[in-house]
Amino acid sequence: MSETLPEPIDDPETAPAAAPAPRPLSLRGRAFKGLALTPEPPLPEWLAGLDAALKRSPTLLKGRAVILDCAQLKPEPDALETLMAELKARGIAVLGIEGIDAVASGLPPLLVQGRPSDTVEIPAAPAEPEPQVVTSITVEGSVRSGQSVINPTGDVTVMGSVSSGAEILAGGSIHVYGALRGRAIAGAARNPRARIYCRKFEPELLGIDRLVRTAEDMGTALRGKAAQVWLDGGNIRMASLD
């Protein structure tokens, strides 16, 4: 006797799940600001100008999206690859290329329909400082109390004396052929080699470069004598000229 097998019943718990329908691919346009480099012939001169701009402002193109606009240069494929190598050597990452018909494989993509935006100002080259003219001043007589003689670029020579309450300030050295009783500051132009000379040492204050000594710090060993003052190892030194 034969038996008829029951037909299989679909069990929702054991049946394989149907594959989900693929989601449609979504493409969106997005605009970003970038800087456009526009090389011009002759290329070596343009690269020299680029180097000068990067020297004045090393962060000018650092971390920026850079577009290479070749509309004026119109380079051949080999020349374009050479230009890209030059830019890479300067740390410039090119996001895309525009202004030509096609680019070779391995280069950034071709961009079209770019719109001009604001111009980025490149820092101007700093002006060369004008050389200072070193001059010397000679005072034929004496410098009286309350008077000041200032020469920030050179020496000061006083043929007479410097009275108490008078002041001499020089970018270079100070020479006093009489008595020095006032204030004398030499080397005011950051000149540590400046010196002070006098025939009679009785100053109220001495200074060379940024160091000073008052009368209380000088002692009496040189008082009334011919003396010179200079810097030695960051210290003010004094000695007799006799």
From TrEMBL:
Function: Cell division inhibitor that blocks the formation of polar Z ring septums. Rapidly oscillates between the poles of the cell to destabilize FtsZ filaments that have formed before they mature into polar Z rings. Prevents FtsZ polymerization.
Family, similarity comment: Belongs to the MinC family.
Pfam families per the UniProt record, alphabetical: MinC_C (PF03775)
Organism: Methylobacterium pseudosasicola
Subunit structure: Interacts with MinD and FtsZ.
Assigned keywords, A-Z: Cell cycle, Cell division, Septation
Occurrences of domain Septum formation inhibitor MinC C-terminal (ranges): 139-238
Protein name as annotated: Probable septum site-determining protein MinC
Gene3D superfamilies named among the record's database cross-references: 2.160.20.70, 3.30.70.260
Spans annotated as Disordered: 1-23
Superkingdom in the source lineage: Bacteria
Annotated HAMAP family: MinC
Any one GO biological process: regulation of cell septum assembly
